[in-house]
Amino acid sequence: MDVLDSSQVSRFYNGKNIFLTGGTGFLGKCFIEKVLRSCPDVGNIYMLCRAKRGKSATERMTAMFSEMLFENLRTENPDSIQKVIPVIGDVLEKNLGLSEEDESLITENVHVMIHSAATIRFDEHIKFSLQLNLGGTVKMVELARRTKNLISFVHVSTAYANCNIADIEEVYYEMGDMYSPLKLLDLCEWMDEDVLASMTETLLKDRPNTYCLTKAITEEYLFKEAKDLPLGVFRPSIIGASWEEQPRVGSTISMDQVDSLSLWVKEC
């Protein structure tokens, strides 16, 4: 039996269509490359994408597949790339900015939803961080509830959402009555930005930045308001360069101190 055929993950994705946000980020790109390479019978991957810096969504996706990360796919299985279909939208817009046609495409055909889009800046303004990290998730949940054949909804959080706790387990950590996710999201609609910013220190309490805070608030929303969905919360820590995984050792989109050290150790 072929190794891929014997993989439980590969079998799970056979014939499954995926809706992915954050597909142009490092984690999103790695997911696309890995699934296309290791799960040959996967269905389509509908990737939410917006125009940016003068490039259309389609142009951005085309440029993405020219990167080194996808070198093996381009050589060994170029047809698989056709399974990735750009869906025009933006997590900051109402209903993710989807057209009626694209919304129908997703709700009628998707089996797995993976929400990876987020701002990961530590010093992001509290308003923007809430609107993107929490607000985008709320819109994804609303769309998921209209998706007829949904079997899995995966939210990409962070191991640092609960960094104020010494020992973190794979459980839900309730934040308390002070943090009402939907009320905080509503404040972003009408409250002056400076007033909202002045509340940041109070909201942070013992968390170091708005990234960790809004990721935690988003988990609070999911565990309280999205229990009706086939929900999974993924909490990665620092995401660095690949170690031994294909397509190439050291694949990354940045070169920080951790990546540099990893590559140095690998070569020793």
Give an account of the 3D structure.
The chain has 268 residues and is of the alpha/beta class. It is 43% helix and 10% strand. The chain is built from twelve helices and six strands. The protein has helices at 3-6, 8-13, 26-38, 57-64, 71-76, 100-109, 126-145, 181-190, 193-198, 200-204, 210-225, 257-267, and strands at 18-21, 45-49, 84-88, 112-115, 152-156, 231-234. Strands 3-2-1-4-5-6 form a six-stranded parallel sheet. Strand 4, helix 7 and strand 5 form a beta-alpha-beta unit. Helix 7 (126-145) crosses helix 8 and helix 7 (126-145) runs parallel beside helix 11. The longest helix is centred in the middle third of the chain and has 20 residues, at 126-145. The protein is globular, with a radius of gyration of 19 Å. The two termini are 36 Å apart. Residues 259-266 have low confidence and may be disordered.
Core attributes:
single chain, 268 residues, alpha/beta, 6 strands, 10% strand, globular, disordered C terminus
Strand order across the biggest sheet? 3-2-1-4-5-6
**Which value, in Å, is the CA radius of gyration?**
19 Å
Question: Could you describe the largest sheet, including whether it forms a barrel?
Answer: 6 strands, parallel
Distance between the termini: 36 Å
The number of helical segments is: 12
Structural class: alpha/beta
Which whole number gives the mean pLDDT?
Answer: 89
Portion in helices: 40-55%
The residue ranges in which pLDDT falls below 50 over 5 or more consecutive positions are 259-266
